[in-house]
Design brief:
136 residues; alpha/beta; Ribonucleotide Reductase Protein R1, domain 1; GMP Synthetase, Chain A, domain 3; 6 helices
């Protein structure tokens, strides 16, 4: 297990290569393309279809010791207005609050390493935030 800040894209990519879930030639193409765009290598691999959301989720889950939240684990009766965070912000950033109590909020997100999003949710709700992962 690693701290969230220690899990770099490089470590994620190495893990995916070791597990055989990413081919070296696809990684090289994505790295070359990343030099001409603002997208990260991981984002490009996902966009190009060279990496599945599920494989990325599994790698991050392993490295961060975070569980993957499956569709069946998401409550059907979510009321997003209770969070105090705009629905537009949640949708644009692919965030889904799934549980909340007086002190914490559990949020499903694509990349729990995203400090901007985790801090934004914490500030907007006044609660400490527990990021989770989901296959999208």
């Amino acid at each position: 297990m690693h701290a969230t800040t220690e899990v770099t894209d490089k470590l994620v990519l190495e893990t995916l290569l070791e597990k055989g879930q990413l081919r070296e030639d696809n990684l090289m193409r994505a790295r070359n393309l990343a030099e001409t765009t603002s997208d990260s290598v991981l984002t490009l691999l996902l966009k190009l279809g060279n990496l599945s959301d599920r494989h990325l989720a599994e790698a991050l889950s392993q490295l961060l010791d975070k569980k993957i939240i499956e569709d069946k684990d998401i409550p059907n009766d979510l009321d997003l207005t209770l969070t105090g965070v705009s629905e537009k912000f949640l949708v644009e950033n692919q965030l889904l609050p799934i549980a909340m109590d007086e002190e914490t909020i559990d949020v499903v997100m694509r990349d729990p390493r995203d400090r901007f999003l985790t801090q934004s949710i914490a500030i907007a709700t006044g609660k400490s935030q527990q990021p989770h992962w989901i296959t999208c």
